[in-house]
Amino acid sequence: MYKSKKIMSKWKNYKNKAWYVYDGSGDIYHAASYRRITHKPNSDRGKYICAVYASSGGLIPTSPLSANVQQYIADALASGLAQPPKLKKHIKYFVYLKD
Question: I need a surface site. Which of 13, 22, 72, 81 has the fewest CB within 10 A?
Fold first, then answer.
């Protein structure tokens, strides 16, 4: 019972977040360069930022993007892989890439 409550509380941290697609023209580290989308992206490899999972601010994410999301963006561009790396089954990607 305790274990399931612990997992449930972990997922509550995601309830005020949403997916935002990069508009392709602005600074990738600036919240105003993203627009809300209604579905999760599916491309996890590439050279360009596709979308981020960030604090929900409506049409654009809450500004500024969190330090974690900014680090995930930098790591994604360096590695060409969605971030953070899925070392465990229940890890959630916060940054997706595309070609």
Answer: 13
Question: What gap in Å lies between CA 14 and CA 92, rounded to an integer?
Answer: 10
Close Cβ partners of 80 (under 8 Å, ≥ 6 residues apart): 45, 46, 47, 97
- Least Cα distance to 14 among 66, 64, 86, 63 occurs for 66
Cis bond upstream, residue 84 (ω within 30): yes
Residue 93 has pLDDT above 80, yes or no: yes
Residue 54 phi/psi, 5° resolution?
A: -135, 170
Could you read off the pLDDT of 15-48 as tens digits, one per residue? 799 999 999 999 999 999 999 999 989 888 999 9
Per the listing, tokens 């580290």 go with: 29
Q: Which helix (H) or strand (E) holds 48?
A: strand 48-55
